[in-house]
Amino acid sequence: MRVTALLASVNNLHEAVIALEAGVDIIDLKEPANGALGAVADPLIRRIAGNIRGRVPLSATTGDLPLEAERIALAVEQKAATGVDYVKVGLPEGGDLAGTLLRLHRIATQGVRLVGVLFADQGIDIGVLPKLSAAGFAGAMLDTAGKKAGGLRRHADDQVLNAFVRRCRSLGLLSGLAGSLDTADIAPLLKLSPDLLGFRGALCRSGLRTAALDPQALAAIRARIPRGEPAADQAPIQAMR
Fold it and tell me: Which pLDDT score is estimated for 233?
């Protein structure tokens, strides 16, 4: 049976502990005040990793960077050195995608687990997924770059999202869906069986992604995503646990 893991984005140690105690499957280190994939400072990530790593998998974002190969590679190497399990890399429209993936392939071969983040509000090109697989990425996520223009399902219908999830699966990539998701999105998205569902705003006070994490809101989301053991072919999720 396939299961969907709950990813919760946090920006400090206190929030990470709340997420851990709530039973999230993956803790994602991200600073919402700095953008869609705003980066948390490396010293703080190291502190969180020192307290949390080994108890639940950790991921960290590299920040909202343009597709410049060396700039992204440096950010990835810095985040990987903090002790997180996964590094999430934004792949916005424009820029040097080919050069960036070539450079990141060298990093992936050194054991760094990369998750490429595509932005549904910039257009979804599923043809990018084989390129991520060839570059050694562990997974791919769909998110939204603009947080004021509606959530993921406003920019992509369930048929498109299903195609994304299935293509990831066929390539051996972890599949994740995020982007201003709310409780109403959970049931229809679970039917698509993504490996991850990612949340921030819906976990916060007043639903504001820059507000503090709300334990009650987090518990409500956790209750709607069934737990269980990953299927045999969910290698990325197996590796996380």
Answer: 60
For 23-182, strand residue ranges (E) read: 26-29, 58-61, 86-90, 114-119, 139-143, 174-177
> Which phi and psi angles does 59 have, rounded to 5°?
-125, 160
Question: Which pLDDT tens digit goes with each residue over 70-129?
Answer: 999 999 999 999 999 999 999 999 899 999 999 999 999 999 999 999 999 999 999 999
pLDDT grade for 1, boundaries at 50, 70 and 90: low
Residues tagged active-site: 30, 88
User: What residues have CB less than 8 Å from 148, skipping those under 6 apart?
Assistant: none
Question: Does residue 114 contact residue 138 with C-beta atoms inside 8 Å?
Answer: yes
Mean pLDDT of the chain, nearest integer: 93
Phi and psi angles of residue 208, each rounded to the nearest 5 degrees, phi first: -95, 120
Angle between helices 97-108 and 69-80 (to 10 degrees): 30
Rounded to whole angstroms, how far apart are CA atoms 190 and 107?
A: 32
β-sheet bridge partners, residue 118:
142
- Token readout for 44 is 């703080």
